[in-house]
Amino acid sequence: MAADAAEKERGKRAALSFAAVALVLGLPLWWKTTETYRASLPYAGISALGSLRFQLTVPVSVVFAKGTLPGAQQRRLPLADTREEEILLNRKPSVTSCYEMTYRSATATEQAALTMATVQEADAALLLLQEDLLGSLTVYVIPETSPLLPQGIGVYIGKHRSAVMRGTQGPGDVLAAISARVQQIVQAMSFTTDSITTALSDRVPMDQLGTDTRRPFKSSLGYEITFSLLNPDPKSHDVHWDIEAAVNSYVQPFLDKLGSVANFSVDSQILYYAVLGVSPRFDKASSSFILSALSLPHVINPVEARLGSSATSLYPVLNFLLYVPERVHSPLYIQDKDGAAVGTNAFHSPRWGGIMVYNIDHPAPDKAPLLLRVDVDMVRVMEVFLAQLRLLFGISQVPLPEEFLLESPGNNGLTDWELDRLLWTRTVENIATVSTTLTSLAQLLDKIGNIVIKDDVASEVYHAVASAQTAMLELASGHLGSAFQASKEAVTSSERAFFDPSLLHLLYFPDDQKFAIYIPLFLPMAVPILLSLVKILREAKQSKKEPMKTD
Amino acid sequence: MAGAVAAVLGLSLLLGSTGGSTGPPRDSLREELLLSPLPSGDLAATFQFRARWDSELHREGVSHYRLFPKALGQLISKFLVRELHLSLTQGFWRTRTWGQPYLQAPAGAELWVWFQDSVTDVDRAWKELSNILSGIFCASLNFIDSTNTVTPTASFKPLGLANVTDHHLLRYAVLPREVVCTENLTPWKKLLPCGSKAGLAVLLKAERLFHTSYHSQAVHIRPICRDASCLSVSWELRQTLTVVFDTFSIGQGKRDWSLFKMFSRTVTEACPLVSESKIYVDISSKTQENELLEVTPLPLSVHEASVQGDRRTYAVYDLLSPSLFNVSRSLNVQLKWKRPQDSLDLSTPVLHAQRYVSGYGLQTGEISTLIYNTHPYRAFPVILLETVPWYLRLYVHTLVITTKGKENKPSYIHYQPAQDRRRPHLLEMLIQLPANSVTKITIQFERALLKWTEYTPDPNHGFYVSPSVLSALVPSVIAMKAEDAEQSPLFTSLFPSSDGSSYFVRLYTEPLLVNLPTPDFSMPYNVICLTCTVVAVCYGSFYNLLTRTFHVEEPSRGGLAKRLANIIRKVRGVPPL
């Protein structure tokens, strides 16, 4: 009987050690061999980015010309001051704008420049004296009676990064008196609540957005600009356009200026027999054809099938179409919502491009040749397209009071401070994009267990987080240029990580297949172990009860 | 959608000199339809659209397209392509009964590209290019990889202007499995400047084009000389489409045909952008035997040409000539045979070929190619290109070439053996074909076993072996005079003609279908189950042995017999044992 008990004990121990081996050796082995590789990711950094607390610092120097400050205040210069202002958006993201004001009096050369004959000359002369730093602004205060600005004009905003304003005469603190005006100038030249809201349009609830906010193209590393001439009636119109010269003289300088923002490529094509999707309405009163604003959304889709996407790049495409209506449908005019004809005869579609209708003067039907040769007036066309291009990039005019005088951008079609405005919003938008991309990647990883994260993907994510953080810091310290570069890098890295094909390698491995493989292996192994464990437990319970009974 | 305001931009100051600098048109377009009755009674219709652009496509910067499609132009300038030939074909051109084709293409998809010598990584450019082309033409060209790409050394010479003939810049691939359908035709039509709205392209109605015995559409891009002095380069895009209609089935047993019967459309106008738009009808048999056939409307002119070693007569309809549409608004070319033809002159073409797989079982097999030279007295050489996938292991020592019962030694052999899962076999030979002879080329192969994931979705259908390619300068029976390529009809001017005595022919044989040993695809699961059962049985008994306690059973009180006896005793009322 004793031997029997010893034997039983041995069996029990053997069963237990089987279970132990399965538990200690088998389970980790199985776990290790079937695990998907996942390098560690900076989740803390990603969620910190997700809160999007921006601080945008604009370095502003206010320069007082001779005779604008009373002596007492003159002596207090130079002077530094920081003004912070919360831009109200949602709770998250939060944007604080911070103006770092430095006040100083004009140097001798500046003084000389400010007494030049015209303000344009002064602007050009002052450019040489400034350090050309992206994002920094200079406001020159001149005496109220100075002849530099024309009558009735209080503020002049130049082509570059400076503005000239009239000071106020009179007792009291001049700095306090001009500060509201300076604030207005600086906002016009850097960023406003609206422009930041536009940049963060994905994060801000819809009701807070204006109609214009969805218009500009999303920030991207490059853009393809395609000009297309649509000639639906090649039988009666032989249309020629000198697009090459027009692009070189109008579009290219503008794009060169924007070269630091993104890469651009420009091409053009002529499409024949491409018709608009809607047939225009005939208007008897003016004996012309009318395309009403309501029907414009239906115009684009049928045309787009013919446009063709770019075969060789993945950048978004901006389409500019010049439509020469058929002879039977001309002249064709676009009507806005109120029923008035649109002056430029053009319209644009947000984040897509623009369409312009180009009417041809037809000679009297009896004299008209069968095939009419048409040379397109490219100046007229490019004026419209360039204006649309500015709108689509979000370079729009800020509403300004009457007494502000804006210098026209000249050959480039873009002033320095407009470029700065673009960079401010683009940097904010880029950082927001990075945070969205990385957050959704983190959420995906949380949800789907089969996604592999290789080391190089992980390093891209680390790089993206680091660059985005650098960009935030640079923004806070007022270095717009480096902030933008860092944000661009962050976007590149985060997109590369998110769209890496290695993420998908093991994605298709459904659970039913897993069970089909595991069940034949695990069932016969696990059942005896479990049964004997149950038996041992039951016996242990019984043996505990038994002594109680005998007592 | 607000009206754009363009007030602020002072553009008008800048340039007054735009416009006015338009010289002669830098690009031109020609279209052409060739209708040729085939010896077998079928009818071949060959469309050719040629856009010619006097421009340097490889120049950097802004690019402006007019007649040349933007998508292809961008492709050429990005990948530095020197020449590109893509064809998508459904069906097989039966050279024996249909005669020599103007432009044959192998069944499925064929792509061959010459790159510029400035391309450093040709393989990468080839891969990206085929991927983009597959997007443009909605074809599975993305399946082109190193296992079906070869670099022929002799067969594919550039057709256009080229001074580089380093064959490392050439890539060639065929996908015999590719099925061609409407989805491939639509993007092809979209490349035409007039689309399918005007000109000859109105006839391209997918419903009719795919109801044919043979359908082949192709795109050929090549640089050509701009003028006779050839100092600068122009780019040529040729879009060709060949269909073969079975006239018997269309015309209810008669061989008569008309444009409307075949395409269910008629031609009403030329595309306004073209500089030439013509329909050619082959009426050679009219002149041979007196008045066999009749074409209506009466052709305005007749063109005589020597094409592929044969003198041929074509009725020409020039769509640009105003007198054509004077009588009726639309042109419906009709051809009527005057008397029913019973004896079809099946003149066999000078060069044709045939290929088949022989052998039995699933281990070895043999590929045989028969090449016929029916020329009565001239021998000529032919270049044969064979690409065989790696899973058919060729034994080159079994290569036998026999002509008229004697061994025929090829004067040039280039063989590149396959590497498993990396590249296919490539065999190129220059073989002399004696006059009036049949040359038989056989080579044996062994079928490899594939991994179970490498099989196609329907492995029992078999695996395709791409057609072999024959390129030859065939001596012509008659003397041909060299014509100016710009003036002559398009169908004669794709392949460069050398001298008057011979003409270039490229033929493709049938694709082969080979069965490979196919496993039972539930096998992996069966293996798992079997292994698990074995493991479970071993493990179970081992486990039992170790954990069970054994003790000696007392000798039992008899077996079954005793129990039975007890039952009987109980019944009888006797005490049990």
Automatic annotation (TrEMBL), chain A:
Pathway in which the depicted protein is active: Glycolipid biosynthesis; glycosylphosphatidylinositol-anchor biosynthesis
Annotated localization: Endoplasmic reticulum membrane
Keyword annotations: Endoplasmic reticulum, Glycoprotein, GPI-anchor biosynthesis, Membrane, Transmembrane, Transmembrane helix
Organism: Gopherus evgoodei
Biological processes, Gene Ontology terms: attachment of GPI anchor to protein; GPI anchor biosynthetic process
Protein name: Phosphatidylinositol glycan anchor biosynthesis class S
InterPro entries attached to this UniProt entry: PtdIno-glycan_biosynth_class_S
Gene encoding the protein: PIGS
Pfam families: PIG-S
GO cellular component, one term: GPI-anchor transamidase complex
Homology family: Belongs to the PIGS family.
Primary location class: endoplasmic reticulum
Cell inner membrane keyword on record: no
Membrane topology: Multi-pass membrane protein
Automatic annotation (TrEMBL), chain B:
The keyword Signal appears for this protein: yes
Top-rank taxon, per record: Eukaryota
GO BP: attachment of GPI anchor to protein; neuron apoptotic process; neuron differentiation
Keywords, comma-separated and alphabetical: Signal
Signal sequence annotation: 1-20
GO MF entries: GPI anchor binding
InterPro entries referenced in this protein's UniProt entry, alphabetically: PIG-T (IPR007245)
Assigned GO CC terms: cytoplasmic vesicle; GPI-anchor transamidase complex
Protein name as annotated: Phosphatidylinositol glycan anchor biosynthesis class T
Originating species: Gopherus evgoodei (Goodes thornscrub tortoise)
Gene giving rise to this polypeptide: PIGT
